[in-house]
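PROTEIN FOLDING TASK:
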Amino acid sequence: MSAARDLSIPAVIQATRPDTELATFAAGCFWSVELVFQRQDGVLQTQVGYTGGSKPEPTYKEVCTGTTGHAEAVRMEYIPKDVSYSTLLTVFWNKHNPTQGDRQGNDMGSQYRSAIFYHSEDQRKLAEASKLKVQENYEKPITTEILPAGTFYPAEAYHQRYLEEGRQSASKGCKDSIRCYG
Protein backbone atom coordinates (compact mmCIF):
# COMPACT_ATOMS: atom_id res chain seq x y z
CA MET A 1 0.00 0.00 0.00
CA SER A 2 1.42 3.43 -0.93
CA ALA A 3 1.88 6.21 1.58
CA ALA A 4 -0.98 8.69 1.84
CA ARG A 5 -0.36 12.09 0.31
CA ASP A 6 -0.25 15.05 2.67
CA LEU A 7 -3.23 17.14 1.57
CA SER A 8 -2.74 19.80 4.23
CA ILE A 9 -2.33 23.36 2.97
CA PRO A 10 0.73 25.27 4.22
CA ALA A 11 0.54 28.97 5.10
CA VAL A 12 1.40 31.29 2.22
CA ILE A 13 4.98 32.52 2.37
CA GLN A 14 5.63 36.19 3.04
CA ALA A 15 8.72 38.38 3.06
CA THR A 16 10.39 37.51 6.35
CA ARG A 17 12.98 40.29 6.45
CA PRO A 18 12.99 43.99 5.57
CA ASP A 19 15.66 43.41 2.90
CA THR A 20 13.64 40.83 0.93
CA GLU A 21 10.93 40.92 -1.73
CA LEU A 22 8.47 38.49 -3.28
CA ALA A 23 8.29 37.29 -6.88
CA THR A 24 5.74 34.99 -8.54
CA PHE A 25 6.11 33.16 -11.86
CA ALA A 26 4.12 30.57 -13.81
CA ALA A 27 5.97 28.58 -16.49
CA GLY A 28 4.31 25.18 -16.79
CA CYS A 29 4.38 22.40 -14.20
CA PHE A 30 5.31 24.09 -10.94
CA TRP A 31 7.58 21.27 -9.73
CA SER A 32 10.41 22.00 -12.16
CA VAL A 33 9.89 25.75 -11.99
CA GLU A 34 10.26 25.61 -8.21
CA LEU A 35 13.47 23.58 -8.43
CA VAL A 36 15.16 25.97 -10.86
CA PHE A 37 14.44 28.87 -8.48
CA GLN A 38 15.46 26.87 -5.39
CA ARG A 39 18.89 26.55 -7.02
CA GLN A 40 19.22 30.31 -7.54
CA ASP A 41 21.52 32.21 -5.21
CA GLY A 42 19.62 34.89 -3.31
CA VAL A 43 16.32 32.99 -3.23
CA LEU A 44 15.50 32.29 0.41
CA GLN A 45 12.36 30.21 0.05
CA THR A 46 9.94 28.97 -2.60
CA GLN A 47 6.36 27.77 -2.55
CA VAL A 48 4.23 26.20 -5.27
CA GLY A 49 0.58 27.07 -5.59
CA TYR A 50 -2.18 28.55 -7.68
CA THR A 51 -2.93 32.13 -8.70
CA GLY A 52 -4.58 34.16 -11.42
CA GLY A 53 -7.96 32.48 -11.26
CA SER A 54 -11.38 33.06 -9.79
CA LYS A 55 -12.02 30.07 -7.50
CA PRO A 56 -11.12 30.66 -3.86
CA GLU A 57 -8.92 28.02 -2.23
CA PRO A 58 -8.69 25.67 -5.22
CA THR A 59 -7.33 22.15 -4.93
CA TYR A 60 -4.85 20.58 -7.33
CA LYS A 61 -7.60 18.37 -8.68
CA GLU A 62 -9.80 21.42 -9.38
CA VAL A 63 -6.96 23.40 -10.99
CA CYS A 64 -6.19 20.44 -13.27
CA THR A 65 -9.70 20.65 -14.75
CA GLY A 66 -8.78 24.02 -16.26
CA THR A 67 -12.02 25.55 -14.98
CA THR A 68 -10.67 27.60 -12.05
CA GLY A 69 -8.66 30.04 -14.16
CA HIS A 70 -5.60 29.49 -11.96
CA ALA A 71 -2.07 28.88 -13.17
CA GLU A 72 0.37 26.59 -11.43
CA ALA A 73 2.87 29.10 -10.06
CA VAL A 74 5.90 29.51 -7.82
CA ARG A 75 6.07 32.27 -5.25
CA MET A 76 9.44 33.07 -3.75
CA GLU A 77 11.15 35.31 -1.27
CA TYR A 78 14.46 36.69 -2.49
CA ILE A 79 17.17 39.14 -1.45
CA PRO A 80 17.48 41.86 -4.13
CA LYS A 81 21.06 42.72 -3.13
CA ASP A 82 22.01 39.07 -3.81
CA VAL A 83 19.87 38.40 -6.88
CA SER A 84 18.13 41.06 -8.94
CA TYR A 85 14.59 40.77 -10.21
CA SER A 86 16.08 41.02 -13.71
CA THR A 87 18.12 37.89 -12.99
CA LEU A 88 14.99 36.10 -11.79
CA LEU A 89 13.29 37.13 -15.04
CA THR A 90 16.19 35.63 -17.01
CA VAL A 91 15.83 32.36 -15.09
CA PHE A 92 12.09 32.43 -15.82
CA TRP A 93 12.53 33.04 -19.58
CA ASN A 94 15.24 30.38 -19.84
CA LYS A 95 13.13 27.79 -18.02
CA HIS A 96 10.35 27.48 -20.58
CA ASN A 97 9.05 28.26 -24.06
CA PRO A 98 6.90 31.38 -23.60
CA THR A 99 5.26 31.04 -27.03
CA GLN A 100 3.22 27.90 -26.32
CA GLY A 101 0.11 29.47 -24.84
CA ASP A 102 -1.82 27.15 -22.56
CA ARG A 103 0.82 24.44 -22.43
CA GLN A 104 4.42 23.57 -21.74
CA GLY A 105 5.68 20.52 -23.59
CA ASN A 106 3.27 17.64 -23.00
CA ASP A 107 1.42 19.48 -20.21
CA MET A 108 -1.67 21.09 -21.73
CA GLY A 109 -4.25 23.39 -20.18
CA SER A 110 -4.58 26.96 -18.99
CA GLN A 111 -3.04 25.99 -15.64
CA TYR A 112 0.30 25.56 -17.49
CA ARG A 113 0.32 29.00 -19.10
CA SER A 114 3.24 31.39 -18.87
CA ALA A 115 2.71 34.36 -16.57
CA ILE A 116 4.58 36.89 -14.48
CA PHE A 117 2.67 38.12 -11.44
CA TYR A 118 4.31 41.37 -10.35
CA HIS A 119 4.38 42.61 -6.75
CA SER A 120 5.42 46.21 -7.49
CA GLU A 121 5.42 48.79 -10.25
CA ASP A 122 9.20 48.30 -10.65
CA GLN A 123 8.66 44.57 -11.20
CA ARG A 124 5.98 45.31 -13.80
CA LYS A 125 8.28 47.65 -15.74
CA LEU A 126 11.15 45.17 -15.66
CA ALA A 127 8.85 42.33 -16.76
CA GLU A 128 7.45 44.34 -19.68
CA ALA A 129 10.93 45.39 -20.84
CA SER A 130 12.29 41.84 -20.55
CA LYS A 131 9.35 40.44 -22.53
CA LEU A 132 10.09 42.85 -25.38
CA LYS A 133 13.77 41.92 -25.33
CA VAL A 134 13.13 38.16 -25.20
CA GLN A 135 10.62 38.42 -28.07
CA GLU A 136 13.61 39.13 -30.34
CA ASN A 137 14.62 35.46 -29.87
CA TYR A 138 11.30 34.04 -31.12
CA GLU A 139 9.44 34.11 -34.42
CA LYS A 140 6.13 33.26 -32.72
CA PRO A 141 4.64 35.84 -30.35
CA ILE A 142 5.28 35.43 -26.65
CA THR A 143 2.01 34.60 -24.89
CA THR A 144 3.24 35.32 -21.35
CA GLU A 145 0.77 37.32 -19.30
CA ILE A 146 2.06 40.09 -17.06
CA LEU A 147 -0.44 40.66 -14.27
CA PRO A 148 -0.57 42.12 -10.78
CA ALA A 149 0.04 39.52 -8.08
CA GLY A 150 -3.30 38.61 -6.58
CA THR A 151 -4.22 36.03 -4.01
CA PHE A 152 -1.79 33.13 -3.96
CA TYR A 153 -3.13 29.79 -2.79
CA PRO A 154 -0.41 27.36 -1.68
CA ALA A 155 -0.66 23.89 -3.18
CA GLU A 156 -1.14 20.87 -0.99
CA ALA A 157 1.89 19.97 1.15
CA TYR A 158 2.90 16.97 -0.97
CA HIS A 159 3.58 19.31 -3.93
CA GLN A 160 6.02 21.50 -1.97
CA ARG A 161 9.68 20.82 -2.83
CA TYR A 162 8.42 17.81 -4.77
CA LEU A 163 11.45 17.23 -6.98
CA GLU A 164 13.85 17.91 -4.12
CA GLU A 165 11.98 15.29 -2.09
CA GLY A 166 12.47 13.01 -5.11
CA ARG A 167 16.23 13.36 -4.59
CA GLN A 168 16.98 16.04 -7.18
CA SER A 169 19.46 18.59 -5.93
CA ALA A 170 18.16 21.99 -4.84
CA SER A 171 21.69 23.12 -3.93
CA LYS A 172 22.47 26.72 -4.84
CA GLY A 173 24.19 26.87 -8.23
CA CYS A 174 23.37 23.26 -9.16
CA LYS A 175 23.25 22.79 -12.95
CA ASP A 176 22.02 19.17 -13.04
CA SER A 177 19.23 18.51 -15.53
CA ILE A 178 15.78 18.73 -14.00
CA ARG A 179 13.66 15.61 -14.48
CA CYS A 180 9.93 16.06 -14.05
CA TYR A 181 7.75 13.10 -13.10
CA GLY A 182 4.50 12.62 -11.34
The longest helix spans residues 121-135.
